[in-house]
Design goal:
Blueprint lengths: L6 H8 L31 H4 E2 L2 E2 L11 H7 L6 E2 L19 E9 L9 E7 L8 H10 L7 E5 L2 E11 L2 E5 L2 H8 L5 H11 L14 E5 L2 E12 L2 E11 L4 E12 L5
Antiparallel strand pairs: 1-2, 3-9, 4-5, 4-7, 6-7, 7-8, 9-10, 10-11, 11-12
């Protein structure tokens, strides 16, 4: 098996966006509030933060920048840590259409090209099980090699892109953006559904495992709330924490935003 680059690090350093397509009727995330709770991270510039590779403002490595943001969330109130993007419970995902099979794919390389090896992270069902021409269906599925993804990005160390592929009868298709993800999922019935849709809908959105402040979720009456982060700068590294609401109807809302991390030691 090929070595996999840490996806969160690649995207964080790249500062690259997952594509969002609003023209096909897919849900688009609402913009974050202009004034995040407890602080104003959007007013900071790179020059204010770092000077000669050091933190000019004297921020501690473990500093909590926006305590009011975290207090407003109350992570003791029903929140759970998250598994990684590639190890979530994919059996909980119920596509909107009846499919023979679907799979989560990743490609990695110096550039995103159609000849890159495809790493299948997980496969659900049997490819082309009900196809009238199984051979042609299998060939079409193998030839389905999009170079973009609902999560994608490039850094000096290389590029990575995640997509879904599916088969139903003799038809095959790919999920590479917010609109196609919304169509694939239909109603958001599980936390993995919500995480997939959030990943596709909010450019750069990701999370870490084992720490509620780095990645958390809880079920609410009309969907899920999710805490994660997005990269803002790549050198120096800065990320902002986001609190998202993913409704069962597929609406993704950025409820709040706060400065989460600064690291002047990251150099590309």
């Amino acid at each position: 098996m090929r070595a996999r680059w840490p996806l969160v690090l690649v995207l964080a350093l790249a500062g690259c966006d997952a594509p969002v397509d609003d023209d096909d009727g897919g849900p688009a995330p609402t913009p974050p509030p202009d004034e995040p709770v407890g602080c104003d991270p959007l007013s900071l510039t790179e020059e204010q933060v770092c000077d000669d590779g050091r933190n000019a403002e004297g921020f501690a490595a473990d500093q909590v920048f926006c305590p009011e943001f975290w207090a407003s969330i109350d992570l003791d109130d029903g929140w759970d840590t998250l598994s990684s993007r590639w190890t979530m419970d994919f059996t909980a995902v119920q596509p909107a259409a009846v499919l023979d099979h679907w799979e989560y794919r990743n490609i990695q390389g110096e550039a995103l090209t159609a000849d890159l090896p495809v790493d299948v992270i997980v496969s659900i069902g049997t490819p082309c099980a009900t196809a009238a021409d199984p051979v042609a269906c299998a060939d079409a599925l193998a030839a389905l090699r999009p170079v973009d993804g609902f999560v994608s990005g490039c850094a000096p160390t290389g590029c990575t892109a995640d997509s879904l592929a599916w088969s139903a009868g003799d038809s095959v298709g790919a999920v590479t953006d917010a609109a196609s993800m919304a169509a694939f999922l239909g109603a958001v019935d599980s936390l993995p559904d919500a995480l997939l849709l959030a990943s596709a809908s909010v450019p750069g959105f990701g999370w870490s495992t084992g720490d509620l402040m780095q990645g958390a979720a809880r079920e609410v009456a009309d969907g899920w709330e999710i805490v994660g982060s997005v990269p803002v700068w790549s050198a120096p590294y800065r990320s902002d924490a986001l609190r998202l609401h993913v409704a069962t109807d597929g609406t993704v809302t950025v409820e709040d935003r706060a400065l989460a991390a600064l690291d002047c030691g990251v150099e590309l």
